Amino acid sequence: MPDIDIDFCYERRGEVIDYVREKYGHDSVSQIITFGTMAARAVIRDVGRVLGFPYAEVDRVAKLVPQSIGMKLERALEMEPRLKEIAESDEKHKKLIEISLVLEGLARHASTHAAGVVITPEALTEYTPLYKSKDGEITTQYDMKSLESIGVLKMDFLGLRTLTVIADTVKLLAKRGVIVDIDNIPLDDQATFDLFGRGETVAVFQFESSGMREYLRKLKPKSIEDLVAMNALYRPGPMEMIEDFILRRHGKTPIEYLHPALEPILRETYGVSVYQEQVMRIASELGGFSLGKADLLRRAMGKKKAELMLQQRQEFVEGAKKRGIDEQTAVAIFELMERFAQYGFNKSHATAYSIVAYQTAYLKVHFPAEFMAATLTSEVDDTKRIVTLIDECRRMGLEVLPPDINESYADFTVVDGKIRFGLAAVKNVGRAAIESIVAARKKKGPFKTIFDITERVDLRLVNKKVLESLIQAGALDSLEGHRAQLMAAVDTAVTYGQRTQARRLSGQISLFDNFDDEEVGGVQPSLPKVPEWNKSELLTRERELLGFYVSGHPLEKYEEELRTYVTRELAEIDSLPDQASVRVGGIITRVQIRTNGQQKQYAFATLEDFSGTAELLIFSEPLNKFRDLLYEESSILVVGKVSHREEQDAKIIAEEIVALKDARAKFTKRMRLAFDVQVADEELVTNVKEVLTGSSGECPVVLELKNTGNGNFVLRSIRYRVTPTLHLVNT
């Protein structure tokens, strides 16, 4: 049966399923069941729980299973000596592993497949039993493989957020009179390919990982075909071929073919076999296979079916010999096909996704504010992702305005080329509350005071908690009073609004219909006189409600240190290999100290920089050494290694921690002072001596005297060593 995958706008996937049900009949359309099975780690945890193991112990055993796709417990026992040692240590642990081996792979629970939909020519019950979930949803009882085996057509209706982003970008542009037909944009736009070549592809579909961005900078793609090839190659397996592909693309490595007949098939990918379709064409054109048989060969190669492969090899070699290819070359070609078919990617799939990627890059280049606003809206529930996107806006020179009760809507919007924060991004503020705020604003105009708000909105929706959240997020900054005053006035404002609305509902103010709401409500209370929050408290509260900082950042004063001494941004950590050495910097937003089984303390900490967040793991020795730097709002630089051993996001194992204010002194190797010979008079020399003497330390000083046209002189100072503080640099 054909495999049909279709991507739809994430928000409208349900509409498509409803349409299909209406068109083909409700009794002929259903989503598909899927069974969650007991994978190697999960089965150990489940069995351990039933056998009464402490969670910490069974978790320790489970984490010894290597994290690889499709990892089986039997294979894990061969690969990990410590796991085998535990299995043989005592009867209890032996029983844990033995039962786990028996239960591994069994169905654990049933749920609805994320994308699968079946359509049958007659009633579903003629083909498959049905299953009703707890929430009343009907699915097939057969899973997708069983359905395929009985000849039922299965389609994947996928909800793709990127399509929603594209649609939302086009809508935002239409609001300012710019009409973009996204399906007919030029596919040879130089500015778009330049963006790919610079690796500036954060928020660009399929091309935004740090590893992909590095390869894009090397490749400098010039065509859609280059993007399609990179999309197909950047995945486990063929990734090792990317460097060779790039060298061939730039003419630095000769393009060679095992036989001239391969050239028309592999020319577009510079002699590198990239796509499954190329494997099928080789089998067809060189081996004489029909396309149907070539597809069967591709599948057999992918699944490594030895007996079938031997038969197919003989058939291919014989077919190739009939077409004038000698046996040795034919065998070599078959082995090349065999090696690649195990991880080759479908070209049609790669092409479709690369076109979508190109569309997002085109929008990012030509309409950056609208595109980034739509992208931010699509990620509104993912704080970590929002931080990354706002950092990208900062890099692009786009100003992100804070939420404003008089300007913001639920989603992120664009005003005069600037992005206005959406109210839906504020914690505790629901869509219904936002609708009430926007409706009141449209009816009577902008709000003037907090009391004006409580008079006009539905206080069942815009309650005290919502108001407090909006205040702390800075959404009421355009009104009278500062945030501390507004917070202190919330109770009074809610009471005032309730009384005013109650009088209005009871008809007591019907005689005053021609008066303004302010006059009807009576004299508004005054704001209490309280001191303003300091910058630190203001930013801390802002972060609590938004998940990040908007009106400033505690790290702004350390931007130069971060730019100079950090090797990786925190947003890149997940994409780095295990045990990669890094030097990162940021502000601590959470610290948790724990004690292990040996009664030694260790700590987890959350570190945040401009790009995102990452978890630090600080073991006993470095914890004791650097404990004084581990507290919330501490700005630090961390030297350590990336760890992917845990099941969650990557962590950084901290080895050394330095206060960011001391980073310059710690990591500067030497300080260079450059002067033009023409201005290096006695007064300048005296001033330099005074400055260097006043900042004595351990860092060597190098003097460079520039003599235009006659060469430069570089002198290393023996007498002066300094502490390279920011104050010294600025002096």
Number of domains: 5
Oligomer: single chain
Judged by helices, strands and strand pairing, the structural class is alpha+beta
Ends apart, CA distance between termini = 74 Å
Number of strands: 17
Major sheet size, sense and barrel closure: 5 strands, mixed, barrel
Described by the principal axes of the CA atoms, the overall outline is globular
Radius of gyration: 32 Å
Explained architecture:
The protein folds into five domains: 4-160, Orthogonal Bundle (Arc Repressor Mutant, subunit A), CATH 1.10.10.1600; 178-350, no CATH class; 387-546, DNA polymerase, domain 1 (Orthogonal Bundle), CATH 1.10.150; 556-661, Nucleic acid-binding proteins (OB fold (Dihydrolipoamide Acetyltransferase, E2P), Beta Barrel), CATH 2.40.50; 668-730, no CATH class. α14 (276-287) crosses α15 (291-303) and α22 runs parallel beside α25. By secondary structure, the protein is of the alpha+beta class. It has a five-stranded mixed barrel with strand order 10-11-12-14-13. 45% of the residues lie in helices and 17% in strands. The protein is built from 32 helices and 17 strands. It is globular and about 90 Å long. The longest helix is centred in the middle third of the chain and has 20 residues, at 347-366. Residues 511-520 have low confidence and may be disordered.
